[in-house]
Amino acid sequence: MKELVSIITPSYNSEKFISETISSIINQTYTNWELLITDDCSIDNTINIVKSFQKNDSRIKLFILKSNGGAGLARNNSIRNAKGRYIAFCDSDDQWKTNKIEKQLGFMNRLSLKFTYSSYDVVDEFGSFKSVKEAPKTISYKMMLNNNYVGCLTAIYDRKLLGNLYMNEIRKRQDWALWLYIMKILKTTRGMSESLAIYRVRSNSISKNKVEMLKYNYQVYNIVLGYNHFLSFFLIINYIFQYIIKKINKQ
């Protein structure tokens, strides 16, 4: 398979980590890719770091937003400029394992999948291993309503088969909103149990602030999906219940 893969990366004040991100993509065994980085008005050295990589690799493309709009807007700008059949995502503090694209495209091709995902490693801000986030073998729309089982850094969709898809431009959880839209179309899909990427948990991450995350989850239910307040609140309660059950099962 020689199809072009467009890798979507939003960046904002990412000077500490973006070199590792870009290097992990450059080191891919699958080489027919383009990396589209849209910077969301960084005030550190992020842009200069990206430009230094561009000098040696024409597959890396940089776009700079005129005003700060959030990760959803930055990702959408990259998607609009993408030329590949496949759209994949890797944030500016995450990394891919070297065979990520090769293995995942092979998996998609063998099973005729339009959208897929994988397990991933979790590391702390300093790169120390914490755990493996195991992906379910299959997901459905109903499952995804209860929880986001797709790590953004592992997701790939086939836009030849699904069309041009963009993220909602709410400030957080816009990736989950897109997966829900896709799953509403597909009903079910499959993922890889093998860990193919590395997710970095940062001290200011939304995933570390559970109360904030619930607020954005409610926005997905109410604003993005258009559910009424009662149903949105019910789904939040169910989300909390599922989270508690998961924690108990891990003990």
Write the layout of secondary structure elements.
Layout: E1 5-11, H1 18-26, E2 33-39, H2 46-54, E3 60-64, H3 71-80, E4 86-89, E5 95-96, H4 100-111, E6 115-116, E7 118-123, E8 129-133, E9 138-140, H5 141-146, E10 156-158, H6 159-162, H7 174-186, E11 188-190, E12 192-200, H8 210-224, H9 229-250
Parallel strand pairs: 1-2, 1-4, 2-3, 7-12
Antiparallel strand pairs: 4-10, 5-12, 6-10, 7-8, 9-11
Short recap of the structure:
With 251 residues, the chain is an alpha/beta fold.
Low-confidence stretches: none
First and last CA, distance: 43 Å
- Average pLDDT works out at 93
Number of beta-strand segments: 12
Report on the biggest sheet.
6 strands, mixed
**Percent in helix:** 25-40%
In spatial order, strands of the major sheet run 3-2-1-4-10-6
Dominant shape: globular
Q: Return the structural class.
A: alpha/beta
SSE order, one letter for each helix or strand? EHEHEHEEHEEEEHEHHEEHH
Q: Figure out the total of helices.
A: 9
Beta-strand portion reads: 15-25%
The gyration radius over C-alpha positions equals 17 Å
Question: Can you characterise this structure?
Answer:
With 251 residues, the protein is of the alpha/beta class. Helices cover 40% and strands 22% of the residues. It has nine helices and twelve strands. Strands 3-2-1-4-10-6 form a six-stranded mixed β-sheet, with helices on both faces. A four-stranded mixed β-sheet has the order 5-12-7-8. Helix 2 links the parallel strand 2 and strand 3. Helix 8 packs antiparallel against helix 9. The longest helix has 22 residues.
